[in-house]
Amino acid sequence: MSLFDHKVSELHEQLHKKELKVTDLVDESYKRISEVEEKVQAFLTLDEERARETAKQMDDKLGTDESKGLLFGMPIGVKDNIVTKGLRTTCASKILENFDPIYDATVVNKLHQAETITIGKLNMDEFAMGSSNENSAYKKTRNPWNLDRVPGGSSGGSAASVAAGEVLFSLGSDTGGSIRQPASFCGVVGMKPTYGRVSRFGLVAFASSLDQIGPITRTVEDNAYLLQAISGLDPMDSTSANVAVPSFVESLTGDIRGLKIAVPKEYLGEGVQEKVRQSVLDALKVLENLGATWEEVSLPHSKYALAAYYLLSSSEASANLARFDGVRYGYRTENAESLIDLYKKTRAEGFGEEVKRRIMLGTFALSSGYYDAYYKKAQKVRTLIKNDFEEVFKKYDVIIGPTTPTPAFKLDENTKDPLTMYANDILTIPVNLAGVPGISIPCGFVNELPLGLQIIGKHFDESTVYRVAHAFEQATEFHKQKPGL
Amino acid sequence: MSRISADQVKHVANLARLAITEEETEKFTNQLDAIISFAEQLNEINTDGVEPTSHILDMKNVMREDVPQEGLPQSEVLKNAPEHQDGQVKVPSIME
């Protein structure tokens, strides 16, 4: 039994009653890391000294009357594309190998306010480009359920560390499925909030119109608490939305009577494994028994989402990654003959293959003569995909389908052909293009590998998504299973 | 028919300020060709009269009061620069 088998609310209660100390929670993290990290390889950097020191100071506060928030003392892992002042942030890229951020991301500031304790920085695909963590320049994180399998990506370290019990919860980022897909593969709960719900200030940009930070947790309730802590308008991010943040936990009523569910036929069709399809149909029965109804619908432009996504996200990435030039920070080549040569060699030596491929694709799609045919065309298709969702949400409360077409695949299984790897994200990408919120929760197993149920909601209606996810979780036992590491 | 040539790949690499080897040129030519061919399925859709979406939020030009604030200290800003001198980042000479 691990302390992290308890929910945040239970641990908080134990701290409050002085049955538990913050140092116990931090000890639990580093003890587990010392036991399993060699196998899981989820962390790029640990912040042990500072975390232990902070825990001691917080234990002193435990004895006082000072009010303590719900997340007080909770150990968290942070994806390595979220900047942390004084704590190395690499984006799992060689080009940022020694990068020491000079400010904290807004979400990190909010975590400080909530008084969580940062255990370390988590592995990912380089610059969040990938679906398996095999694109990290440093290490390949393994799936805690089966060490021959990938944890998913790009937030693979974030999902694996939670599944392995190394941290209580973590933050990831999701551009095309990078929170939900690894959450699905690792059997944990991962939420991509509505675009604009969480500030992106301090999130190293991949595709600015798609990126969102979100929580990865063991339970839906913990997820709702963590999203609560990081949400809201931020003057430092002009794309953060001026929309009130409701109490997400209050929506966890267990009552979904009368809920209308849409199930897109495109999400259960070609390419989706039979057992994955069956697990979704079983989940729908559970929800029906709780008083919801479901109907099949169509999101007719779904099949075009993948192509539109790769053009748009790569175009945005090619612009965003122009800042890595060896001048102001990061890696610099040692043998430059001129300034242009410095840029070219620095980038050639500093970026990995997938990052280069996407920079090339994006630069091509934005280049003179091709802009209208590729980039602008993809933006128009994005409008049609967004309209598909809006049309369905006129009649239904949530959309449900699988998170991924298959359970976790083997390492090296999909690395040869980029298009095969990209196809993994076919069920998560449309959600980012439309900007709506989506969660993945455990909904079954095939050959002892977890499967994820994806629940998608209306813009800024994370509350309904959480309500449905929580009702399903309470009616099932999948989330209680743990990997036998 | 190939949609992208090796010369185009070299041109794009130059625009992207990325040094690529002959081997990479060949690999990227094949891979980009496959990806772009895949992307051309978008041409199946009639998008006449459809507005492009660059951003899903209905917002434009978010303004704030122009209040002067203290910037980051120079020593902090230069901390991550690979080379600096006299409070400025240093690069190879730009003029011949």
From TrEMBL, chain A:
Extract one GO BP annotation from the record: translation
Amidase domain residues are: 24-465
Task: Quote one Gene Ontology molecular function term.
Answer: ATP binding
Q: Which domain of life is it from?
A: Bacteria
Tell me the enzyme class.
Answer: ligase
Instruction: Give the Pfam families listed for this entry.
Output: Amidase
Q: Any keyword Ligase?
A: yes
Which InterPro entries does UniProt cross-reference here?
Answer: Amidase, Amidase_CS, Amidase_dom, AS_sf, GatA
**E.C. designation(s):** 6.3.5.7
> What are the GO cellular component annotations?
glutamyl-tRNA(Gln) amidotransferase complex
**What residues sit in the active site?**
K79, S154, S178
Sorted alphabetically, which Gene3D superfamilies does this protein's record hold?
Answer: Amidase signature (AS) domain (3.90.1300.10)
Q: Which reaction does it catalyse?
A: L-glutamyl-tRNA(Gln) + L-glutamine + ATP + H2O = L-glutaminyl-tRNA(Gln) + L-glutamate + ADP + phosphate + H(+)
The alphabetized UniProt keywords are:
ATP-binding, Ligase, Nucleotide-binding, Protein biosynthesis, Transferase
**In the UniProt record, does the keyword Nucleotide-binding occur?**
yes
Q: What role is this protein assigned?
A: Allows the formation of correctly charged Gln-tRNA(Gln) through the transamidation of misacylated Glu-tRNA(Gln) in organisms which lack glutaminyl-tRNA synthetase. The reaction takes place in the presence of glutamine and ATP through an activated gamma-phospho-Glu-tRNA(Gln).
Which family, according to UniProt?
Belongs to the amidase family. GatA subfamily.
- Quaternary structure (record): Heterotrimer of A, B and C subunits.
Protein's name in the database? Glutamyl-tRNA(Gln) amidotransferase subunit A
From TrEMBL, chain B:
Q: What Gene Ontology molecular-function terms does this entry list?
A: asparaginyl-tRNA synthase (glutamine-hydrolyzing) activity; ATP binding; glutaminyl-tRNA synthase (glutamine-hydrolyzing) activity; transferase activity
- EC number(s) per UniProt? 6.3.5.-
BP GO terms, sorted: glutaminyl-tRNAGln biosynthesis via transamidation; regulation of translational fidelity; translation
**Which residue intervals make up region (Disordered)?**
67-96
Q: Which reaction does it catalyse?
A: L-glutamyl-tRNA(Gln) + L-glutamine + ATP + H2O = L-glutaminyl-tRNA(Gln) + L-glutamate + ADP + phosphate + H(+); L-aspartyl-tRNA(Asn) + L-glutamine + ATP + H2O = L-asparaginyl-tRNA(Asn) + L-glutamate + ADP + phosphate + 2 H(+)
Recite the UniProt keywords alphabetically.
ATP-binding, Ligase, Nucleotide-binding, Protein biosynthesis, Transferase
Q: Which family does it belong to?
A: Belongs to the GatC family.
What the protein does comes down to: Allows the formation of correctly charged Asn-tRNA(Asn) or Gln-tRNA(Gln) through the transamidation of misacylated Asp-tRNA(Asn) or Glu-tRNA(Gln) in organisms which lack either or both of asparaginyl-tRNA or glutaminyl-tRNA synthetases. The reaction takes place in the presence of glutamine and ATP through an activated phospho-Asp-tRNA(Asn) or phospho-Glu-tRNA(Gln).
Quaternary structure, per UniProt, is:
Heterotrimer of A, B and C subunits.
- This one is known as Aspartyl/glutamyl-tRNA(Asn/Gln) amidotransferase subunit C
Organism (species): Cytobacillus solani
Q: Which gene encodes it?
A: gatC
